Automatic annotation (TrEMBL), chain A:
One of its GO terms (molecular function) is oxidoreductase activity. Its cofactor is FAD; Mo-molybdopterin cytosine dinucleotide; Mo-molybdopterin; [2Fe-2S] cluster. Keywords: 2Fe-2S, Iron, Iron-sulfur, Metal-binding, Molybdenum, Oxidoreductase. Belongs to the xanthine dehydrogenase family. Residues 32-140 form the Aldehyde oxidase/xanthine dehydrogenase a/b hammerhead domain. InterPro entries: Ald_Oxase/Xan_DH_a/b (IPR000674), Ald_Oxase/Xan_DH_a/b_sf (IPR036856), Ald_Oxase/xanthine_DH-like (IPR016208), AldOxase/xan_DH_MoCoBD1 (IPR008274), AldOxase/xan_DH_MoCoBD2 (IPR046867), AldOxase/xan_DH_Mopterin-bd_sf (IPR037165), Xanthine_DH_Mopterin-bd_su (IPR014309). It comes from the Bacteria. The lineage of its organism: Bacteria, Pseudomonadati, Pseudomonadota, Alphaproteobacteria, Hyphomicrobiales. This is Xanthine dehydrogenase, molybdenum binding subunit apoprotein.
Automatic annotation (TrEMBL), chain B:
Signal peptide: none annotated. The keyword Transmembrane does not apply. It comes from Nitratireductor aquibiodomus. SUPFAM superfamilies: 2Fe-2S ferredoxin-like, CO dehydrogenase flavoprotein C-terminal domain-like, CO dehydrogenase ISP C-domain like, FAD-binding/transporter-associated domain-like. CDD domains: fer2. This is Xanthine dehydrogenase small subunit. InterPro entries: 2Fe-2S-bd (IPR002888), 2Fe-2S-bd_dom_sf (IPR036884), 2Fe-2S_ferredoxin-like_sf (IPR036010), 2Fe-2S_ferredoxin-type (IPR001041), 2Fe2S_fd_BS (IPR006058), Ald_Oxase/xanthine_DH-like (IPR016208), Beta-grasp_dom_sf (IPR012675), CO_DH_flav_C (IPR005107).
Length: 780, 487
């Protein structure tokens, strides 16, 4: 950071304040290969490399473990088993003690870590791993949730939401439909895989560079595993090569193993699993089986719903409790249910423990809601959009959710209306009907779906954040906060907030790596909350310093406090203006503290899980998307022809970053609902564990026409940071329009008389099978 | 014959001579571990994500071509007399960014940034050969690059705008061309390269005769052409592959040409090298090649390797079988030519004797009277492995099926002809009734399996529907999805 030698005292606006399209702070380093990820850090002499030995059965007890050949392999320094863990053999993030670091006597999924090899090179560690001879007494394994009986084991307590008497409402409704929907899971496929690099220190100390969204949790896990206090452990992360929820709790394992090895051997240890091991041994988005029953009238008004959301949680709870809770929180999407009952079933399975992933159960919840809309529409022979609009939450009435929170900021109707017009929905609906009537093999489909997403961690205590701001005597600023950078532009946005506060150019603000040593006890950068929480905490820190500066200037120059005004690059004190840096120097000489720790906690929120009532969300984010697709009814292959999006991010802190989140979230959501298919075989082996078999979208899968707009009129009804709104997760679910457009195209083969009940992911195979089924039912 | 015991190549601006290259050492590990050039990332170590994309410049008939490749599955042994260009080479000495990089910054083309160097390199390769690309060309150039953050939209915008940032002709790799060509020509000394001893050897034959001699003496040696398959044996299965013979640099195997009504493709011809001629003379094959792997894999992978590895889901054997292609196998100085379909005996078993290698494949041009088509079905349209692939070469005369050769991939343990279906068609009137009646013959020909790519039921249904599609198109119907109008 260099000091500005000449300051423009007439400058009207700082560079890189809020509401500017500031580029990502690392963009120039990304493109030149200079951005340092953990595997790029220089390795101190003596650095060792770890590799995990994974279980080869889905469920059973270990009857013998012969690691002699592993130990004898070239380059191997040591082998760790559960016996080598000095502290607790547990990394369960919820304190349920159900997630061992290394399996000791029994394994519960194919791919569970059993031992770790530490060797001179990564290659040597990987090769040695394969020499283990482990025998198991296999036990029956539950792999698929469809096989779970009524008495199946749950990994954590289920949630029930209830408003009104849904059974009575459905029974009294003129019409009702029951059905089941299957929604697949999703691998995060962050481009930078999991990685941790541990440096041993003095006494019990260790520093771990961890690719994690949750440094504080990694710190606690490492401390517990080592049997030391948290103060002995420092976790640092400058940036991740993608997270998406996959590094919220899943980074723990890697950090803990590398730390244990580093302390045992007193040498730096790095653990970077191969992509296959990463995909096999870490949790994913939960797949769900949704049982639904809906009562409705002949006009398409939903009168009551009864929903069961069963999820494949894997062998341990991890975050499955809050994930399945959030599925229920979004079982309404943007729709008002006069009576609702929704229950979750977080099922134990002998698969990897599923975890957080952008949307955190919300997407699965909403997909269920949209299926219900389709069912009602097809039953009545109406356009699903008509049913969607009819059932939206109201503003003054019909505005209470199944969890008894009143929706106070509803803009769904306006968003949909504007998008319907800008996307030319009605005319294209007619054109598509004409096209389909003429086209024998290729059929087109159209759908417009809304999103209403609740913002806040549903565990109220996570809604807090800290920041640390130093102003140096040359006027340059050091910024640190508890949020982590995984590509979403959080560091840039928070720096914009601080620059705005001090009215200095953003290049005067140094963005620094997240570390538990500077800001303690932070929450995961998750739940879309990064900018809301850390932006406010950093603003608080900056304002504390500003307040001291104002007090000082007012006293030193004998002017009223309101005559000390921060202008771009300068400060007006009474009748004169001085550069910001001059004021800082004066303040320093007068012994004013130029450093502050900021703090923020989200107001208004509360949640009583036992009652299923409260205000879990501070506010909601809204958007809508319209997709047109073509399907090939001979093969089920398809193409996304056009997508139009209107999304609101309040008063955007950075439109360019927000649009990037919307475009990227949409494509990721589209991948989840289309080509990304996780396949486990009967033995519980994940067969799609690499990009060769697991297919995320490519550039050529983008919609041919992709129009993304922000709702410029929007602002947050709540006093969030500059009235902006969270943007990380909400756009993900905009992609539901693609699933429904595919469904619409499938439905055209029987003149829209049969609900296609197209499950996700809608692979070409599922689309073709749906075409065949709809044709057969339509011919009846 | 000359011999030397080191590999020589140019790395960015520096000549490198390696006497200690291991036979299975990848370029990515060399760059990251030995050279500490960490701009090139490992995302998957199997050639599917593109985070490790670098450029390799090689002399093709005296001309210098730069191609994007996956460093993760590229062995050092395949780089002799090549120019390796990594992302570190792009930034100018004054610190300014290359036009492709600056466009990526300005269009917000990076978020987490981990895939970004790979994208930059793929776009750099595109920029050099096509400074003002169409959107379609950009998508094709990026088929082998995965991004999980941006949804690609800003990257494509940056790629389309890059030409406004600078002139491709003033690019260092353009201006220094003559010097690089001279340096590579000097390295290309026609010597046999042999590094290591006994069973741990790396061999680069001096020429094809030398290759034949080496293989006769070492029939168990692993032959590496493009390494898009063998690369994974090392990075994923950690198989011992030495001794290894690298044949990708043998010019004699990289010839492709047309003669006597057939296209002759040397075993070392990459998909990219084969594309122009095949797309022109047998357009459906050009369209198919566009959907094999990503650009990086097409620049490395060879049609010869696709055949020789015997996979039941290789994309080129079914269409080549349908066209009646033949294969020349060579052992020492003895050659034999067999119908391609006879090469595939069973899963993992081909008609190749110890010490024998695939030298060339000969593809007869389709008859003017016949109609040739090939369709690939996969979960994701581009850069995916086939679920079902069907190839048809059917001649109709006077409304009757005169001859039919139909072959499928993904339906059996080998690429296989649908002989019962052919019988059900030949001699019959070319009508919908004939096609529908022939569909039941598929059960005689195939008993496909279910796996992560598709269920058996879907494979069978889609396979049958491809015959329906062939019929529809042959009678003037249009039944295809198209990403671009007039594709």
């Amino acid at each position: 950071m260099t000091r500005h030698e000449t300051l423009d005292l007439e400058k009207a606006r700082i560079a890189g304040g809020v509401a500017s399209d500031q580029k990502h702070d690392s963009a120039h380093k990304h493109v030149s290969g200079e951005a340092v990820y953990i595997d790029d850090m220089p390795e101190p002499a003596g650095t060792l490399h770890a590799c995990l030995g994974l279980s080869e059965v889905a469920h059973g007890t270990i009857t013998s473990m012969d690691l002699s050949k592993v130990r004898a392999a070239p380059g191997v320094v040591t082998v760790l088993t559960a016996d080598d863990i000095p502290g607790e053999n547990d990394i369960s993030p919820t304190g349920l003690h159900d997630e061992p670091i290394l399996a000791s006597d029994r394994v519960q999924f194919f791919g569970q870590p059993v031992f770790a090899v530490i060797a001179e090179t990564r290659d040597a560690a990987r090769r040695a791993c394969r020499l283990a001879k482990i025998e198991y007494a296999e036990e029956p394994a539950l792999i698929d949730i469809a096989d779970a009986g009524a008495d199946a084991r749950l990994v954590t307590a289920p949630l029930k939401l209830e408003r009104g008497d849904s059974a009575a409402a459905i029974a009294a409704a003129p019409r009702s439909i029951k059905g089941q929907m299957r929604v697949g899971g999703q691998d995060h496929f962050y481009l930078e895989g999991q990685i941790a690099f541990a440096m041993p220190g003095e006494d019990g100390d260790v520093t771990v560079f961890s690719s994690t969204q949750h440094p504080s949790e990694v710190q606690h896990m490492v401390a517990h595993a080592l049997g030391v206090s948290s103060h002995a452990v420092t976790i640092e992360v400058r940036r991740m090569g993608g997270g998406f929820g996959g590094k919220e709790t899943q980074a723990n394992l890697f950090a803990v193993i590398s730390a244990i090895a580093a302390k045992k051997l007193n040498r730096p240890v790095k653990l970077r699993p191969d992509r296959d091991d990463d995909m096999t041994a870490t949790g994913k988005r939960h797949d769900f089986l949704i049982d639904y029953e809906v009562g409705f009238d002949d006009e398409g008004n939903i009168l009551g719903v009864d929903l069961t959301y069963a999820a494949r949680c894997g062998y341990a709870a991890d975050l499955s409790g809050p994930v399945t809770d959030r599925a229920l929180f979004h079982c309404d999407n943007a729709y008002f249910y006069p009576a609702a009952r929704a229950v979750s079933r977080p099922l134990y399975t002998n698969t990897v423990s599923n975890t957080a992933f952008r949307g955190f159960g919300g997407p699965q919840g909403m997909v269920g809601a949209e299926r219900i809309i389709d069912e009602v529409a097809f039953a009545l022979g109406k356009d699903p959009l008509e049913i969607r609009k009819k059932n939206l939450y109201g503003t003054d009435d019909r505005n209470v959710t199944p969890y008894h929170q009143t929706v106070e900021d509803n803009v769904a109707e306006r968003v949909i209306a504007e998008l319907e017009a800008s996307a030319d929905y009605a005319a294209r609906r007619r054109e598509i009907a004409v096209f389909n009537a003429k086209s024998q093999v290729i059929k087109r489909g159209l759908a417009l779906t809304p999103v209403k997403f609740g913002i806040s961690f549903t565990a109220t205590h996570f809604n807090q954040a800290g920041a640390l701001v130093h102003v140096y005597t040359d006027g340059s600023v050091h910024l640190n906060h508890g949020g982590t950078e995984m590509g979403q532009g959080l560091y840039t946005k928070v720096a914009q907030v601080v620059a705005e506060e001090f009215q200095i150019d953003i290049d005067q603000v140094k963005i620094t790596a997240t570390t538990t040593g500077k800001v303690p006890n932070t929450s995961a950068t998750a739940a879309s909350s990064g900018s809301d929480l850390n932006g406010m905490a950093a603003q608080d820190a900056a304002r504390q310093i500003k307040t001291r500066l104002i007090d000082f200037a007012s006293e030193a120059h004998d002017v009223p406090k309101d005559q000390v005004v921060f202008l771009p690059g300068r400060v007006r004190i009474g009748n004169r203006e001085i550069p910001f840096a001059d004021l800082i120097r004066e303040a320093y000489m007068a012994r004013i503290q130029l450093s502050a720790a900021g703090f923020y906690k989200t107001p208004k929120i509360h949640w009583d899980r036992d009652k299923g009532q409260g205000r879990p969300f501070y506010y909601f984010a809204y958007g809508a998307a319209c997709a047109e697709v073509s399907i090939d009814t001979l093969t089920g292959e398809y193409m996304v022809e056009r997508v139009d999006i209107l999304h609101e991010t309040g008063r955007s802190l950075n439109r360019a970053i927000d649009i990037g989140q919307i475009e990227g979230g949409f494509i990721q959501g589209m991948g989840w609902l289309t080509t990304e298919e996780l396949v486990w075989d009967g033995k519980g082996r994940l067969r799609t564990h690499a990009p060769s078999t697991y297919k995320i979208p490519l550039a050529s899968d983008r919609p041919k026409v992709f129009n993304v707009a922000l709702a410029d009129w929007a602002e947050n009804a709540e006093p969030t940071v500059h009235r902006s709104k969270a943007v990380g997760e909400p756009p993900f679910m905009l992609a539901m329009c693609v699933l429904h457009a595919l469904s619409d195209a499938v439905a055209s083969v029987a003149d829209h008389k049969v609900c296609p009940r197209l499950d996700a992911p809608a692979t070409p195979e599922r689309v073709l099978m749906a075409v065949e089924r709809v044709r057969a039912e339509g011919a009846r | 014959m000359k011999a030397r015991s080191e590999i020589r190549f140019l790395l960015n601006g520096t000549p490198v001579a390696l006497g200690n290259a291991r036979p299975d050492e990848t370029l990515l590990d060399y760059l990251r571990l030995r050279q500490r050039l960490t701009g090139t990332k490992e995302g998957c170590a199997e050639g599917d994500c593109g985070a490790c994309t670098v450029l390799v410049g090689r002399l093709r008939k005296g001309e210098l071509v730069y191609e994007s490749v996956n460093a993760c599955i590229r062995f050092l042994g395949s780089l002799d007399a090549c120019h390796v260009v990594t992302v570190e080479h792009l930034k100018r000495a004054d610190g300014s960014l290359h036009p492709v990089q600056q466009a990526m910054v300005d269009y917000h083309g990076s978020q987490c940034g981990f895939c970004t160097p790979g994208f930059v390199m793929s776009l750099y390769a595109l920029w050099m050969r096509e400074p003002q690309p169409t959107e379609r060309a950009v998508e094709k150039a990026l088929q082998g690059n995965l991004c999980r953050c941006t949804g690609y939209e800003p990257i494509v915008r940056a790629a389309l705008a890059a030409s406004t940032y600078g002139n491709a002709m003033s690019d260092p790799l353009a201006t220094e061309r003559a010097a690089v060509i001279a340096a590579l020509n000097q390295m290309k000394d026609g010597a046999r390269v042999e590094i290591g001893s006994a069973q741990d050897r790396l061999l680069i034959p001096a020429n094809v005769d030398d290759f034949a001699a080496i293989l006769e003496a070492e029939p168990k040696a692993t032959i590496v052409a493009g390494a898009t398959d063998v690369g994974l044996w090392v990075t994923k299965f950690m198989r011992e592959i030495a001794p290894v013979v690298f044949i990708g640099g043998l010019d004699e195997l990289r010839d492709i040409g047309e003669e006597n009504g057939a296209i002759h493709i040397g075993a070392g011809v990459s998909y990219s090298d084969a594309f122009a001629l095949l797309a022109k003379r047998i357009p459906p094959l050009g369209a198919l090649i566009d959907r094999i792997g990503g650009e990086q894999v097409r620049n490395m992978g060879t049609i010869g390797g696709n055949i020789a590895n015997g996979s039941p889901i290789g994309d080129t054997p079914p269409p080549l079988i349908a066209l009646g292609a033949t294969l020349t196998l060579r052992k020492g100085n003895t050659r034999r030519t067999i119908p391609l379909e006879d090469f595939f005996i069973d899963y993992g078993k081909q008609d190749r004797a110890p010490g024998e290698f695939v030298e060339a494949v000969h593809v007869p041009l389709p008859d003017a009277a016949s109609r040739f088509a090939v369709w690939k079905i996969s979960k994701r349209r581009d850069e995916d492995i086939t679920a079902v692939l069907g190839a048809f070469d059917i001649s109709i005369a006077d409304g009757r099926v005169e001859a039919a050769r139909i072959a499928y991939g993904g339906m059996a343990a080998t690429p296989k002809r649908a002989k019962a279906v052919e019988v059900a068609l030949v001699g019959k009137p070319w009508t919908e009734e004939t096609v529908e009646a022939a569909l039941s013959a598929y059960e005689e020909d195939f008993q496909p399996i279910s796996d992560m790519r598709a269920s058996a039921g879907y494979r069978m249904m889609a396979a049958k529907n491809l015959l329906r599609r062939f019929y529809l198109e042959s009678t003037g119907g249009s039944a295809k999805l198209s990403r671009y109008e007039a594709a």
